[in-house]
Specification:
- The protein is an alpha/beta fold.
- It folds into three domains: about 150 residues, ATPase, nucleotide binding domain (Nucleotidyltransferase, domain 5, 2-Layer Sandwich), CATH 3.30.420.40; about 190 residues, Nucleotidyltransferase, domain 5 (2-Layer Sandwich); about 220 residues, Alpha-Beta Complex (DHBP synthase), CATH 3.90.870.
- About 35% of the residues lie in helices and about 20% in strands.
- The strands form five sheets. Strands 15-23-22-16-17-21-18-20-19 form a nine-stranded mixed sheet, sandwiched between helices. A five-stranded mixed sheet has the order 3-2-1-4-5. A five-stranded mixed sheet has the order 8-7-6-13-14, with helices on both faces.
- It is globular and about 65 Å long.
- The N and C termini lie far apart (about 60 Å).
């Protein structure tokens, strides 16, 4: 039984394939076409998934689409009567999804009738809920989805029981936690699609000076309900426009905040204007208001379901700062957030919703690692390295067995070198989790600035992440609940903040990844080797890219290595080192040591 899940005609387009109840592959289109947050039909991602299953499109049994244009039609019609533009937008969406079989046939150069699969329209948030619960390790759990908007809802909650999901409630348009966070992200001057995580990082530098005003902008409105102060927003009168040119352009969102917001809080920051303390305090205030609403949700959902386990999905589930507070602020003791909690994860959720809710099949799969993307063979890596070697004589290349590779890599990191790590299958989701990562020494206070100057070119207020051996988490962090997909921020123990200053944020927290020996054995061995060498079983981990989607193929890794000031690349069983490796700037090192002291 082959089920193909497709998230199409929206940002973060993706595909996933499930065979006989087990996930075989999942990948975002952006990893393959190299367009950040790619939208449109994910033809490359679909082709990869079919190849992994060893089937043709004509041999797929079911196709799951995480969009149901007919959902909440009455509510949509009422809005359409007041807003003709909205009606036109909805009509375009319905037309596009109605033609997906023809689009697939065109992309795969077959006639539409050759696609014998049964198509299933899974409501947006039902797919989000499925993406969280059906791949979780829990037999029963409360499940919560929250994002911007999908099928005219912004939030939904349910009780997951075995292969079933019991719907418990929802919040519909125009009230939306995702819209709230995006609108205020724009107001603070970050307009690119996906910039919300920047403001989450900025919030740690401020104080919630404007919290009273933000409690008017978003607020809990009874048990498991929230509302927006709609006068602060424009999406309910002008729509929430997202535009893109098919799959070759990053989506663009229109303005979501109103003039009234500026009247209350002052003029919006322009993207090229400097950040002031006021902007930091605005970020802290919007984060605090979001956490108040979420806390009320968690508490009531726990009371309503009686469960101690919680699954989260939707874009809001990427708010690792809020997630890290669930254990202190609610009765939940176990929380699962899969690595592609946002809209990319809809392809997985829709496929498993068909598998369990429609076909009635039992659950037999748990997503305990993120390696569901493309993998390069040893031969592919060798060919790419040999070609690269022929084009440059400034690179020293050596080949190792696994144990020697791990020891040499740990030594390079301990010496302060910036190192690319390319191993196994590419990660599913937006986080680098030890397959396509840039690694560095977390003990060096200057390392954050070095990474930004040499490779990442990011805002200085954005933190990097630590990867830590799962079994020693409690030695460095104040919580021990696993965080395998980098979806929780925990407080670093005060006595350890000077030990791992590079990935420790200004507020003393870090968005950690706990690394399991069974889920990612090679990465675990590397961190252990680094720990044996230095006494610190932690490495600084950031995504292997430079203002582009995370690298996927060997050629992309080699290109990023070549054009940045990365010192070392470890790919497969090869170690490539630049003969003129960039030395650590003594001034930066001294400055970092002074800050740490």
């Amino acid at each position: 039984m082959i089920i193909l899940g497709i998230n199409a005609y929206h940002a973060n387009s993706s595909a996933a394939i499930v065979a006989d109840g087990k996930l075989l592959a999942a990948v975002e289109e952006e990893r393959l076409n190299r367009v950040k947050y790619a939208a449109g039909l994910p033809a490359r991602a679909i082709r990869y998934c079919l190849d992994q299953a060893g089937v043709k499109l004509s041999e797929v049994d079911h196709i799951a689409i995480p969009r149901n244009p007919w959902a909440r039609m009455g509510t949509k019609l009422r809005f359409a009567m007041r807003m003709p533009k909205f009606a036109l937008d909805r009509a375009r969406v319905m037309k596009r999804f109605a033609g997906i079989q023809e689009d697939l046939a065109t992309s795969f150069e077959i006639v539409p009738d050759a696609i014998r699969a049964k198509f299933h329209r899974i409501e947006h948030h039902a797919a989000h809920l499925g993406s969280a619960f059906y791949v979780s390790p829990f037999e029963r759990a409360a499940v919560l989805s929250a994002d911007g908007l999908g099928d005219f809802a912004s939030s939904m909650w349910a009780l997951g029981e075995g292969p079933k999901m019991r719907h418990l409630g929802e919040v519909t348009f125009p009230h939306s936690l995702g819209m709230y966070y995006t609108a205020l992200t724009q107001y603070i001057g970050f307009w690119k699609f996906g910039d919300e995580f920047k403001v989450m990082g900025l919030a740690a530098y401020g104080q919630p000076e404007f919290l009273d005003e933000f409690r008017r902008i978003v607020y809990a409105d009874g048990p498991l309900s929230f509302r927006l102060g709609l006068e602060y927003f424009s999406h309910q009168t002008q729509g929430a426009d997202m535009t893109w040119r098919d799959t070759d352009q990053t989506p663009v969102l229109g303005r979501l905040f109103s003039n009234y917001l500026e009247q209350r809080l002052g003029p919006a920051r322009k993207a090229d204007e400097p950040l002031e303390q006021r902007h930091r305090n605005l970020a802290a205030s919007m984060q605090a208001a979001l956490e108040e609403v979420l806390t009320a949700h968690w508490i009531e959902l726990a009371r309503k379901t009686g469960e101690k386990s919680l699954c989260l999905a939707g874009g809001v589930a990427f708010n690792c700062v809020a997630n890290g507070k669930i254990f202190d602020n609610s009765p939940f003791e176990r929380v699962y957030v899969q690595p592609a909690a946002g809209d990319a994860g809809l392809s997985v959720g829709a496929a498993f919703a068909v598998n369990h809710q429609i076909l009635g099949r039992p659950r037999e799969f748990v997503m305990d690692h993120a390696g569901w993307g493309p993998q390069s063979s040893a031969q592919d890596i060798r060919r790419a390295v040999e070609k690269f070697q022929g084009a440059s004589d400034e690179i020293q290349i050596e080949q190792f067995d696994e144990d020697a590779l791990v020891q040499a890599t740990a030594r390079h990191i301990s010496e302060g070198k910036v190192l690319g790590w390319f191993q196994g299958r590419a990660e599913w989701g937006p986080r680098a989790l030890g397959q396509r990562s840039i690694l560095a020494d977390p003990r060096r206070p200057e390392m954050k600035e070095i990474l930004n100057r040499r490779i990442k070119h990011r805002e200085i207020f954005r933190p990097f992440a630590p990867s830590i051996l799962e079994e020693v988490t409690g030695e460095f962090f104040e919580k021990t609940q696993p965080s395998p997909f980098m979806t929780f921020a925990y407080s670093v123990r005060p006595e350890k903040r000077g030990v791992i200053p590079a990935p420790t944020h200004v507020d003393g927290t870090a968005r950690l990844q706990t690394v399991s020996r069974t889920a990612n054995p090679l990465y675990w061995k590397l961190i252990r080797a680094f720990g044996d060498l230095t006494g610190v079983p932690v490495v600084l981990n950031t995504s292997f890219n430079d203002n582009e989607p995370i690298v996927c193929r060997p050629e992309e890794a080699l290109d990023c290595f070549r054009r940045t000031q990365m010192d070392v690349l470890v790919m497969g069983n090869f170690i490539l080192e630049k003969k003129t490796a960039a030395a650590i700037d003594p001034e930066l090192a001294a400055r970092g040591a002074n800050r740490a002291g």
